[in-house]
Design goal:
499 residues, mainly alpha
């Protein structure tokens, strides 16, 4: 049985190529792969330097802010890190990066923020390469696999989410690499163990990735590869224990974060506070955020069932199961996007085997054009395209949202006499918090003490309301204002909890 096929003898064998054809495949495959990875890297790097906005507070308060508190000793605490509803795995990774940046002299917030964004952008580029590896493991040719990588590397949502410190983007890389290692033809025991370990890491980063573990085990059970199945099960069990141990060490109880998270979202339905969406949300938002890639991925992924049914059913099942969950956001299915792109590459090769050159060449060109055109419009995405804030500001640009507030926090950081700051223009959850302010002084929300309280000497406010005080920095209609107070009065009741 072929090592990477989901069921034995279920697909036609690829037509053998001449030496000249094989050399041409290698050249074109390498060219498409390198060009798409380079273009994706450039766009992600540009975004890392030019977007200070926030897609959703989780990218700050589930990763950067707890990491900042771990490394520098202060930061706002979201309810998840009060009650222990999140694992410390992702904040721990970010904290290690912040600490390394600080040791190398990058203690200014702008410096470590750029390092953080470039780090997550690099994960995005690596995920695109892993998509190529998975597509090849599924039976795709070099050119088809490179087209799969281009789809992920250049699709607008993948570029948009790349620099953001979110569990969905971070966990996509170990997910796709895990399947590439476990499903490649002739894979060794150690490659399967490494793949299962990567899946275990992905679950520590994002609990919902446990669905992929179930799917991978099901593939090997369907193959009746019992020894390999036992190896996978044992490896995943070890990583489950490590998950529980991390919670025991950080929260004081085995699997504490998983249990609290499930209770909050399955029993108490806390996530539904942020809205509910119909079953077809993900199909609709994939279309609005990346219409051309969706147009080619959907049929090609279905065609790939001929050759890689297990991976196809896992990917489709992941989306369907998330579609039954009332509260939906596009980022929730981000880890499955590279798998769908990899399946599109497999679909191209299925066409190549059945129709030789004409249809498969057309499919490959269509994929490349769809990916390139999606990359061209990556900066035109609105929140409506991404399925976020659909009733509040669907037509607003998704880029640099709340960026002016965060740049004013950076400006406040540079004020030597800063002894307290109040943000009057937005809820603190939609600001960069102490990750951007990076000063151990009270940071108040709009519901906090009055200006006359003496608890703070700077405010971020709307320009027309700047007086009395001195405007020291401005962004559009927002301003950082120094109040006419000489110093701050100690606030014994200040809470570091995110209001």
């Amino acid at each position: 049985m072929s090592g990477c096929r989901d069921v034995p003898n279920s697909s036609p064998q690829p037509i053998s190529l001449s030496t000249a054809d094989a050399a041409g495949q290698r050249r074109w495959g390498l060219l498409i792969l390198l060009a798409s990875l380079l273009a994706g890297a450039v766009l992600r790097a540009w975004l890392s330097f030019h977007d200070d906005g926030i897609y959703w507070p989780d990218e700050i308060y589930q990763s950067l802010e707890p990491a900042h508190r771990l490394v520098f000793g202060y930061g706002l605490i979201a309810w998840e890190f009060v009650e222990g509803a999140r694992s410390w795995a992702l904040p721990g990774v970010v904290a290690a990066m912040l600490k390394a940046s600080a040791l190398l002299g990058g203690t200014e917030p702008r410096a470590y923020l750029i390092v953080d964004r470039l780090f997550f952008s690099a994960i995005g580029v690596a995920t695109a390469y892993a998509t190529y590896r998975l597509s090849r493991a599924g039976g795709a040719s070099r050119v088809a696999g490179a087209c799969a990588a281009a789809l992920f590397s250049l699709s607008a949502p993948a570029i948009y989410f790349a620099p953001r410190a979110m569990s969905e983007t971070a966990s996509a890389l170990p997910v796709v690499l895990a399947f590439a290692l476990c499903l490649q033809p002739g894979g060794s025991r150690w490659e399967r163990i490494a793949g299962a370990s990567l899946l275990g890491i992905s679950v520590m980063l994002r609990l919902q990735n446990g669905l992929f573990c179930v799917g991978l085990v099901a593939i090997f059970a369907a193959r009746r590869q019992w020894v390999a199945l036992l190896e996978l099960a044992c490896t995943l069990a070890i990583w489950a224990l490590l998950f529980g141990l991390l919670d025991k060490l950080t929260w004081g109880g085995w699997f504490h974060s998983a249990l609290v998270y499930l209770r909050a979202n399955v029993i108490e339905h806390k996530a539904e506070i942020w809205g509910v969406s119909p079953f077809g949300y993900y199909a609709r938002v994939l279309w609005t955020s990346m219409p051309l890639p969706s147009l080619v991925v959907a049929p090609l992924a279905l065609i790939s069932i001929v050759r890689s049914p297990g991976l196809a059913f896992i990917s489709i099942g992941f989306v369907l199961l998330h579609s039954f969950i009332p509260h939906k956001e596009l980022r929730f299915i981000f880890p499955v996007l590279p798998l769908l792109c990899a399946l599109a590459g497999v679909g191209i090769s299925v066409l190549e085997d059945g129709f030789r050159s004409a249809v498969s060449t057309f499919s490959a060109l269509a994929v490349i054009c769809a990916a390139a055109l999606s990359a061209v419009r990556f900066h035109d995405l609105t929140f409506g395209d991404l399925g976020q804030y659909e009733t509040l500001k669907p037509g607003a640009s998704a880029y640099d949202d709340f960026g002016p507030v965060n740049r004013l926090l950076l400006a406040a950081h540079r004020q030597p006499d800063l002894c307290g700051l109040k943000v009057e223009v937005v809820h603190l959850a939609w600001s960069g918090g102490f990750t951007y302010l990076h000063r151990p002084v009270p940071l108040y929300a709009n519901i906090g003490p009055a200006r006359e309280s003496g608890r703070f000497n700077y405010v971020i406010t709307f320009g027309p309301h700047a007086a009395p005080g001195q405007v020291v920095a401005s962004e559009g209609n927002l301003a950082l204002v120094r109040l006419p107070v000489q110093s701050c009065t100690f606030d014994p009741g200040y809470l570091w909890r995110l209001p």
